[in-house]
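ugh ok so i messed up the first submission bc i forgot one of the chains. this is the corrected input, ALL of the components this time, i swear. 226 residues overall. if the numbers dont match what u have on ur side tell me asap before i send this to the collaborators (the ones from the other lab, u know who)
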Amino acid sequence: EIVLTQSPGTLSLSPGERATLSCRASQSVSSSYLAWYQQKPGQAPRLLIYGASSRATGIPDRFSGSGSGTDFTLTISRLEPEDFAVYYCQQYGSSPLFGPGTKVDIK
Amino acid sequence: QLQLQESGPGLVKPSETLSLTCTVSGGSISSSSYYWGWIRQPPGKGLEWIGSIYYSGSTYYNPSLKSRVTISVDTSKNQFSLKLSSVTAADTAVYYCVRELLGYYFDYWGQGTLVTVSS
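and heres the new structure output, hopefully the right one now
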């Protein structure tokens, strides 16, 4: 059974800074089956990235995804005030599985 | 624009069955390529996929919940439903209905509904 680990647990940054979030799988995952979501308080998650690096419809280009095998990264090039949220990675092995999340908060 | 809306009781007693319905609007639940699923999130915690269904009735479930979960679909009403039996306090969560591109991702989410298990 695949286990997803996200790091760091919390990332404290200022608006305008670059955020780098990590998602690591215990076994190799096909890049096609790796997605990222953003969740703000009191809201449903929103799909940001699918296929490890493809942006979902309407997602700004400051969000980018990369990686392969067991190591994947979500990068936010310049944090906007609305980007402070929790981010989850999700893989699709035999069934969907989410990572524990990384909280990006304001420093 | 596709919209999903959960409905059902917000309070369920321990050992009883949790029942929720998701109504899909702005699109057909009979669309090919898409499954329709349920994901839950206990207060302050992460996301857990529960299970998904195709419009034909084909289902697949989270192995950890499979013995207690039933998901069904009503294409005439453009709805799908979740039943979770023998609930305990650990099943208290916000329950989201979602559209799933099978094998890939969840691209549309309902707003979520909080279900509390308590006597």
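quick check: Chain A touches chain B through 22 residues (CB under 8 Å). that seems consistent at least. Chain A has a mean pLDDT of 95.
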